[in-house]
Specification:
The structure holds two protein chains of two kinds. Chain A is built from eight helices and no strands. Chain A is mostly helical. Chain A has a single domain, classed as MetI-like fold. Chain B has a six-stranded mixed sheet, with helices on both faces. Chain B has a four-stranded antiparallel sheet with strand order 2-1-4-5, covered by helices on one side. The chains are: A mainly alpha, B alpha/beta. The structure holds adenosine-5'-diphosphate and magnesium ion. The site of magnesium ion has 3 residues of chain B, from helix 1.
Chain lengths: 224, 251
């Protein structure tokens, strides 16, 4: 077998892939923001004493963790459009779908890290006259965030990889760009290897950024 | 200052505080002693409602804490009201519970600042005065993990004092410390007592109890079995179980 990477330089293939990469990065970034917001809400809500709130959060978690992302995406994009006439653009559906799916996993990370903070911290805050939420915001969350970072890095990397599924609902991201090129020239190996490399670089950057952030936050002297 | 009447506390089916009656006057130092598991910590934690109670009443400066009666029904008081009472009751824990992500100074100023009691400048000034009082002015910018156990506990005391409490609760403040660090913490507590602070102290430091306590409360199996001056408790206790307990700890 002979590999011919010069194919990248023909027919505007490389610019097309780079354009796809940029869409992937944007989609992933917005999905990540949604994922963090949902994760925080559902994670904290899941610990609520209010049965309704914790019930809603538990259901959310069970649903989005218990069904395949691909199915959620096509439901959101094709399903809503056809049965409820809610016509989301592919990108909006994609970002929402990815964010909601990943949010379920982030909520578990949020909940776990909050619960891992010693009970005595909340008691100390309360005994000083601060409210539950003041203590949560000033004492518990700052410590919990440090513990969230390593599992969050994993989740964000998974999110980036999962974004390739958006190709199915016609979002012109990296995978779809690759598919369309391959359909023309049948250079499967060259093109998909290039794509893999792109994903790898993005994820490498993410994990490096988070590691730097972790080190920054360690200045506060919190290890445990 | 604190009035506890017919307090009962259960953990599930486990009856851990039984018909507790105790009145603590302003300026008084009360030391609570008794075997492990007798309910000392739980009683102390009830005094600022870190533990909910099942029956009875606890009054702090003539205000009920935790439970209030409304239209003939007993129910939990609103959080806001509870927080206000808690400001008056400082608490020092066995394992310090300092905030590890904040410096010593920030530990002390967090609550006054968060609750809008003072501005940043005043808060830092108060923190400095308190650190002077506990002998740690040079550690203001240190993080808790950089401190010894004794230093941590002194910061925890300063942190509680920053809220200008009217009463201080101490739950075995020296039990987690290496023996050579116990003295520095007890000294801070003695100074505090001399200034007239109302204090409730759970401790196994009998020397401290003898020297500082106005009254000693002896607990056993969820009950107060004896309350008296330290002289009487340590020399002529009326209860056999008090004698047995003292023999064990003083050996
Ligand atoms: N959070 C809790 N849940 C269940 N039981 C508890 C809890 N805290 C304390 N207890 C029980 O209550 C009793 C009194 O405990 P505690 O007040 O800690 O005693 P002491 O401080 O005198 O050693 C013990 O039997 C203990 O096992
Ligand atoms: Mg105890």
């Amino acid at each position: 077998m002979e590999l011919d990477f010069s194919i990248l330089l023909q027919d505007g293939n490389l610019p097309l892939l780079l354009k796809g990469l940029w869409v992937t990065i944007r989609m992933t970034f917005f999905a990540l923001c949604i994922s963090c917001m949902i994760g925080l809400l559902v994670g904290i809500g899941g610990m609520s004493k209010n049965k309704l709130i914790s019930g809603i959060c538990a259901t959310y978690l069970a649903w989005f963790r218990g069904t395949p992302l691909l199915v959620q995406l096509v439901l959101l994009y094709y399903g809503l459009a056809i049965s409820l006439q809610i016509d989301l653009t592919a990108s909006v559906a994609g970002v929402l779908g990815l964010g909601m799916y990943s949010g379920a996993y982030v909520s578990e990370i949020v909940r776990g890290s909050i619960q891992s903070i010693d009970q005595g911290q909340m008691e100390a805050g309360r005994s000083l006259g601060m409210s539950h939420w003041q203590t949560m915001g000033k004492v518990i969350l700052p410590q919990a965030v440090r513990r969230m970072l390593p599992p969050l890095a994993n989740e964000f990397i998974a999110l980036t990889k999962n974004s390739s599924l958006l190709s199915v609902i016609t979002v012109p991201e990296l995978m779809r760009a690759g598919n369309s090129i391959v359909a023309d020239n049948f250079k499967y190996f060259e093109i998909y290897l290039t794509i893999a490399l792109f994903y790898f670089v993005v994820n490498f950057v993410i994990s490096t950024l988070i590691r730097i952030l972790e080190r920054k936050l360690h200045v506060g002297g919190v290890r445990t | 200052m604190i009035q506890i009447t017919e307090l009962n506390k259960y953990f599930g089916a486990h009856h851990v505080l039984k018909e507790i009656n105790l009145t603590i006057d302003s300026g008084e130092v009360v030391v609570i002693i008794g075997p492990s598991g007798s309910g000392k910590s739980t009683l102390l934690r009830c005094m600022n409602y870190l533990e909910p109670i099942q029956s009875g009443q606890i009054m702090i400066e003539n205000q009920p804490i935790g439970m209030i009666e409304q239209q003939g029904k007993i129910k939990e008081m609103p959080q806001k009201q509870l927080n206000l009472i808690r400001e008056k009751v400082g608490m020092v824990f066995q394992n310090f519970n300092l905030f590890p992500h904040l410096t010593v100074e920030e530990n002390i100023t967090l609550s006054p600042l968060t609750l809008g009691k003072v501005n940043k400048q005043e808060a830092n000034k108060v923190a400095n005065e308190l650190l002077l009082k506990v002998g740690l002015t040079d550690r203001a910018k240190a993080y808790p993990e950089q401190l010894s156990g004794g230093q941590k506990q002194r910061v925890a005391i300063a942190r509680a004092l920053a809220m200008r409490p009217h009463v201080m609760l101490f739950d075995e403040p020296t039990s987690a410390l290496d023996p050579e660090l116990v003295g520095e913490v007890l000294q801070v507590m003695k100074d505090l007592a001399k200034e007239g602070m109302t204090m409730v102290v759970v401790t196994h430091e009998m020397g401290f109890a003898r020297e500082v306590a106005d009254r000693v409360v002896v607990m056993d199996q969820g009950k107060i079995i004896e309350i008296d001056s330290p002289d009487i408790i340590f020399q002529h206790p009326s209860q056999k179980r008090t004698k047995e307990f003292l023999n064990k700890v003083l050996k």
